[in-house]
Specification:
This is 1-aminocyclopropane-1-carboxylate deaminase/D-cysteine desulfhydrase. The chain is of the alpha/beta class and 302 residues long. The chain contains eleven helices and ten strands. The strands form two sheets. Strands 1-2-10-7-8-9 form a six-stranded mixed β-sheet. Strand 7, helix 7 and strand 8 form a beta-alpha-beta unit. It is globular, with a radius of gyration of 19 Å.
Length: 302
């Protein structure tokens, strides 16, 4: 585990508003950001239960799939990935995420999108146990009570001076941890990467306070959707700050926060902390798609 630090964003904002980004993306070279936090206690639990195999779920460019594969290898555990989309079976070598996971020992099972929707059904899990034997189940995106416990460790004493803490949301585990560990003077703002209002209910399963709000205007059309405006924003932000942002989660959240500052959403003198949840491994795959669409690619280095 590498030390995480808060980096001030040296951009002038109106009304004496300041932005700082917590560089959770630097916590581990391959198990990045919130994935490290979510897996920490799940890996300990798997070992406590004497399990030698982790089984989990994900899509073609899943940060979670890549992280579980590497973390499993690092901890001496076998890993199985149930992957959404049977058509990916013959495309592993063309897909940077799946190729990385396979190189780190993950065994794949490709299922149809219809079957994938059954991932939380006990009958489907039982079928997987019959096929693969006894395993420790890590949910899609990694969110469960142990994941939230890990995410409660993101905020530290040095973050007490921030009025707002902002993060992107996939499955709701990270924001739940932030909500639970935030101080009474702090408001947690979540920026969903998916369309739909179901996340409120998901977060309420784990969140113990009401100090939060979801801002659903910055998903850019839905999960994994990206356009020229977002690419140009991420690249300009990198030019100014040298902080690379992923286009699925943190990039959209940072875009949203800066847009809201311009719309006077935040009171004067607000101190805002942005949580960088990692996910940079997905940029290579996204750049393949951007080239196909004849759009500029995302920059992660000078």
């Amino acid at each position: 585990m590498n030390p995480v630090f808060n980096q001030s964003i040296n951009i002038q904002f109106p009304n004496d508003i300041s932005l700082t980004i917590k560089r959770e993306d630097l916590i581990h070279p391959f198990v990045s950001g919130n994935k490290f936090r979510k897996l920490k206690y799940n890996l300990l639990q798997a070992k406590a239960e004497n399990k030698d195999t982790l089984l989990t779920f994900g899509g073609a460019f899943s940060n979670h799939i890549a992280a579980v594969a590497y973390a499993g290898k690092e901890q001496g555990l076998k890993t199985i990935g149930i992957i959404r989309g049977e058509e990916l079976l013959d495309k592993i070598q063309e897909n940077p995420t799946l190729k990385f996971a396979q190189e780190n020992g993950m065994q794949f099972e490709f299922v149809s999108r219809e079957e994938y929707r059954l991932k939380n059904e006990e009958s489907f899990i039982e079928k997987l146990r019959n096929k693969f034997g006894d395993f420790y189940l890590v949910p899609e995106g990694g969110t469960n009570e142990l994941a939230v416990k890990g995410c409660e460790e993101i905020l530290t004493n040095e973050d007490s001076g921030f009025n707002y803490v902002c993060c992107a949301i996939g499955t709701g585990g990270t924001i739940s941890g932030l909500i639970n560990s935030a101080l009474p003077n702090q408001q947690i703002l979540g920026f969903p990467a998916l369309k739909g209002d179901f996340l409120n209910d998901e977060i309420r399963i784990f969140a113990k306070k009401d100090n939060w709000n979801l801002i659903s205007d910055y998903h850019f059309g839905g999960y994994g959707k990206i356009n020229l405006e977002l690419v140009e924003f991420i690249n300009a932000f990198f030019e100014k700050t040298k902080v690379p942002l992923d286009p699925i989660y943190t990039g959209k959240m940072v875009f949203g926060v800066i847009d809201l500052i311009g719309k006077n959403y935040f009171p004067a003198h607000s101190k805002i902390l942005l949580i960088h949840t990692g996910g940079l491994q997905g940029i290579e795959g996204m750049n393949i798609k951007l080239k196909q669409k004849k759009l500029p690619i995302l920059k992660t280095n000078d």
